[in-house]
Fold:
Amino acid sequence: MDNERMPPGAPASASPRPGAITDVAGIEVGHFTDSRRPTGCTVVLAREGAVAGADVRGAAPGTRETDVLSPSNVVERVHGVLLAGGSAWGLDAACGVMRWLDERGAGMTVGPARVPIVPGAVLFDLALGDQRIRPDAAAGYAACEAASTTPPAEGNVGAGAGAVVGKIFGFHRAMKGGIGGASVTVGGVTVGAIVACNALGDVVDPETGQVLAGARTERGTRLLDTRRALLRGDTPRPMLAGSNTTIGVIATDAVLTKSQACRLATVGHDGLARAINPLHTLSDGDALFALGTGASGATLGMMTLCVMAAEVCTLAVVRAIRAAQGVTLGAAYLPAAGDLG
Structure:
């Protein structure tokens, strides 16, 4: 569900939907989208708690509570994951998620107290509009209020509202990114993902090899193909560290250990790499979380679960780009994948 304050013209589905992370039992998703500029946050809730892991691969991450997810540390379960715009400022939205969960009795019991565990990650979208407007605790709370088990909106919403891809040769040659999701089910076990794509590089459809969105030519009328451009010697434009990032959550109803959850987060990056090129750069803060609700009471074994996790991350990135819509920034227009013929 989407607690939006966006003007008319919300992103439309661009192709048949390959499921959603909310197909996983025990998972809810909500967005908050700020109408004052393109930014927002997305929350993935597991009110009953989910075994969790994380893997941060980008060189310039903005994260919260990732250390607690190490298999060597004590905490086993989380109650929500925050994905947000606003760069490091956006981490404040997690406080609103904690408050919402606390009001509903969700959290880890620590002696006489109860503490909701809410890790999170942020992406940089401060280049779009007034950078003083960014997700805060109220935004995180509003995203929780909007959360449900229905398939969440995609494209220019939540953490994907201000996402931009293909900035490697300059922002003026970039295109609109977004947020998307997918799920697959095998043997009665479901794995889903939701991914906000704000990558420095291009997004490629791995089924066809076609570049869907990314750096454009100088005139802006067609896609450049960043991989080929770099290999022939084109010089990338220097980028600020942390000004790009792809962040997301993988969830499954399989029974997992904490180490297995961390492994799913790791192989999820393989799925990102199938659809984003280049990935994990010095200017990206790429991070993935993995949740296991255990609601199915079963597991398929890690080989199959890992293949499923990578697959849904790939599909989610492609969905994010296909569902995105172009935005006008002053006198300039930042196109989406559907705008280039």
Observations:
- The two ends are 31 Å apart (CA to CA).
